[in-house]
Specification:
The chain is an alpha+beta fold and 111 residues long. Helix content is 15%, strand content 30%. The protein starts with a helix and ends in a 5-residue tail after the last strand. Keywords: Signal.
Length: 111
């Protein structure tokens, strides 16, 4: 039993160690983020790439808008899946590849 608890603690510790901070200093959720601030899959994206649409957001990305993007993408993301962005900016985590949004952080729509 002790071995199982130690293993679970190790896994949780490793998950928290892999998350990195947004440029303003808050931490991305460990589930969302792999890597560090230079190579990680979470990154702030320009607000010009995000359009609020009925029921959520349309994110239109081109190379240069996110470190993983190599060609144009349009993602339609439901509002109920958006996570709160503490710094009022948009952030997108792509994993396991550039075609798959894992987490999307957005400011409150009332902001």
């Amino acid at each position: 039993m002790r071995g199982i608890l130690t293993f679970v603690f190790f896994l949780l510790s490793a998950a928290f160690a892999l998350a990195h901070d947004a440029p303003s200093g808050w931490s991305y959720d460990p589930y969302c983020c792999n890597g560090d601030s230079t190579t990680g899959d979470c990154e702030m994206i320009p607000s010009r790439t995000v359009t609020i649409v009925p029921g959520g957001y349309r994110v239109t990305l081109n190379p240069g808008d996110h470190r993983y993007i190599t060609h144009a993408h349009i993602f339609n993301l439901p509002q109920n899946k958006a996570m709160h962005s503490p710094d009022g900016a948009y952030h997108l985590c792509l994993f396991p590849d550039e075609n798959t949004p894992r987490c999307f952080y957005a400011p409150d729509m009332s902001d």
